[in-house]
Amino acid sequence: MTDTIVGAEVFLTSPGRNYVTLRITTADGVVGHGDATVNGRELAVASYLRDHVAPLLVGRDPARIEDTWQYLYRGAYWRRGPITMAAIGAVDVALWDILAKRAGQPLYQLLGGAVRDRVLTYTHASAWDTSALLDAVDARREQGFRAVRAQFGVPGLPTVYGVHKDVAAYEPAARGAAPAEERWDTSAYLRHAPAALAAVRDHVGHELELLHDAHHRLTPQQAARLGKALEPVDLYWLEDVTPAENQEALRLVRQHTTTPLAIGEVFNTVFDLHHLVTEQLVDFVRVAVVHAGGVSHLRKIFALAEAFQVRGAPHGPSDVSPVSFGASVHLGMSTHNFAIQEYMGYADLVHEVFPHAWSYADGYLHPGQEPGVGVGFDERLAARYPYDPAYLPVARRLDGTLTDW
Ligand code: KDG
Ligand code: MG
Question: Which of 135, 265, 281, 323 is the least buried, fewest Cβ under 10 Å from its Cβ?
Answer without folding.
Answer: 135
